[in-house]
């Protein structure tokens, strides 16, 4: 028997997965073709076989109660290696098959003729074959043509099956994307959208677990931000036990997917030294394979981690569904994240003890960029309420003692879209002068165009008053000392004596 490795096995197994044919129930259209092949060629046995990486499996069998054989015993393994039809006139006298258990024992194969089942891409899946327990001196040309025509009919049925599966998968993916986008659009916040998405993906894909991990752009922090699994009602659920684990960004498969931007499938039982603790938990939870689907939001990397048992059949379909889901979710999740960050920014600005003023970018000349926002601290500093300042320029705070040179420095920096820091004497609403330290920065859009200015203003009036008071005290003390007749001496204790 020929035990040589098959270099095309992986390609063939992937193609068979697209057709979704392996280990399916008998179907009359395929049984009919096997029956016609045997009858038309005058043979007692007709088979439609498929070869995966380990065995030969029969989709249809007529005249022989056989569902599968070991790959090393399969005649079809040889048939798919050659172009056109393969015939074995007498297996007992063929060195490739003389010691084959299917020849030396039941069903005692003597004659074999098989036509390869070839996909439009040229992948050989198996054969349509006829078998006899008696030797033959080859098939006539008409019989050979009949067997090859019938093999093409088998492929026609398989192609129809593949197209129907692809259509059904597309409909299912479209439905899933619609449900996920509706969920995300209606979610009150980012966390709720992630929770709902995990629950929906778990139900749609048949996965045992769905985790979402996040890594900051620095690459130093990687952690699980949400996890849902079939054991989520149990205190020993996979997600609950995963959450406290320290995940190493250098060796994590999640990080590999994030950095590459590519989906990754991994088998839990394959030991490559990565995340031993996480792998052990996955094995205990019955997770045999995991699909990592990465995506990016703002300055952070994320990944969906779907864990499956060995029953996951069509990996390509699951991977495609996840890619479609992530592509549809990204803008909605980003909007939710933007809203959360904006809310956090607003809270921080409103809680600030320094005045924050946001203006438009132009005009720089009079009347100047108009104010579009101020925080509560500005009213405490200047006495002007938000309604008093909206639509007006910051020049409203200036007065007769506002330094023209400082104002010119500010304008020159703004003209170059550069940040600037200056100290000015401005005026409160009641006319009281105040000292302000201004830190002005440009706000630019995705194209680098300045759209607004943000000015953080610290009230230095008290500090200035204290400094001026201290300076006055120093001057008074110096004048007092200078007015004293005689000599004043100041003694400094020695520190070098013992």
Number of strands: 16
Main sheet specs: 6 strands, antiparallel
Please report which band the strand proportion falls in: under 5%, 5-15%, 15-25%, 25-35%, 35-45% or over 45%: 15-25%
- Give start-end ranges of low-pLDDT stretches: none
Give the SSE order as H and E letters: HHEEEHEHEEHHEEHHEHEEHEEHHHEEEH
Q: By helix and strand content, what is the structural category?
A: alpha+beta
Strand order of the largest sheet: 3-2-1-6-5-4
Mean pLDDT across all amino acids? 87
- How far do the termini sit from each other? 103 Å
What's the helix count? 14
Instruction: Name the assembly state.
Output: single chain
What is the helix fraction of residues, given as a range?
40-55%
Tell me, briefly, the overall form. elongated
């Amino acid at each position: 028997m020929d035990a040589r490795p098959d270099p095309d096995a992986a390609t063939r197994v992937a193609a068979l997965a697209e057709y979704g044919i392996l280990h399916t129930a008998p179907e009359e259209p395929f049984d009919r073709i096997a029956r016609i092949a045997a009858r038309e060629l005058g043979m007692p046995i007709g088979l439609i076989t498929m070869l995966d990486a380990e065995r030969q499996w029969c989709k249809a069998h007529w005249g022989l109660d056989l569902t599968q054989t070991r790959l090393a015993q399969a005649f079809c393994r040889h048939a798919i290696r050659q172009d056109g039809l393969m015939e074995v006139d007498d297996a007992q006298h063929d060195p490739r098959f003389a010691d084959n258990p299917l020849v030396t024992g039941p069903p005692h194969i003597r004659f074999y003729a098989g036509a390869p089942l070839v996909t439009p891409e040229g992948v050989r899946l198996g054969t349509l074959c006829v078998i006899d327990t008696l030797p033959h001196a080859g098939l006539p040309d008409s019989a050979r043509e009949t067997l090859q025509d019938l093999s093409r009919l088998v492929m026609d049925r398989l192609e129809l099956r593949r197209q129907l599966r692809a259509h059904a998968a597309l409909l299912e993916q479209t439905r899933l994307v619609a449900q996920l986008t509706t969920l995300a659009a209606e979610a009150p916040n980012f966390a709720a959208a992630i929770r709902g998405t995990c629950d929906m993906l778990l139900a749609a894909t048949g996965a045992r677990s769905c985790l979402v991990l996040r890594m900051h752009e620095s690459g130093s922090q990687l952690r699980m931000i949400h996890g849902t699994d079939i054991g989520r009602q149990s205190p020993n659920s996979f997600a609950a036990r995963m959450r406290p684990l320290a995940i190493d960004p250098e060796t994590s498969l999640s990080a590999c997917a994030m950095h590459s931007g590519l989906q990754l499938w991994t088998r839990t039982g394959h030991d490559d030294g990565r995340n031993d603790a996480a792998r052990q938990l996955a094995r205990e939870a019955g997770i045999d394979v995991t699909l990592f689907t990465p995506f990016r939001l703002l300055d952070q990397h994320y990944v969906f981690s779907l864990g499956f048992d060995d029953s996951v059949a069509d990996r390509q379909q699951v991977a495609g569904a996840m890619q479609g889901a992530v592509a549809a979710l990204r803008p909605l999740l980003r909007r939710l994240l933007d809203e959360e960050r904006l809310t956090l920014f607003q809270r921080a600005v409103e809680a600030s003890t320094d005045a924050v003023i946001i203006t438009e970018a132009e005009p720089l000349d009079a009347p100047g960029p108009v104010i579009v926002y101020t925080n509560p601290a500005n009213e405490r500093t200047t006495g002007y309420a938000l309604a008093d300042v909206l639509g007006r320029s910051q020049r409203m705070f200036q007065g007769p003692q506002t330094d023209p040179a400082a104002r010119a420095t500010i304008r020159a920096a703004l003209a170059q879209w550069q940040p600037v820091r200056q100290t000015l004497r401005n005026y409160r609403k009641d006319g009281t002068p105040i000292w302000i330290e201004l830190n002005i920065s440009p706000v630019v859009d995705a194209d680098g165009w300045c759209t607004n200015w943000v000015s953080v203003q610290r009230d230095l009036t008290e500090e200035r008053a204290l400094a001026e008071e201290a300076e006055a005290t120093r001057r008074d003390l110096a004048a007092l000392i200078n007015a004293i007749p005689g000599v004043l001496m100041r003694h400094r204790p020695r520190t070098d004596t013992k």
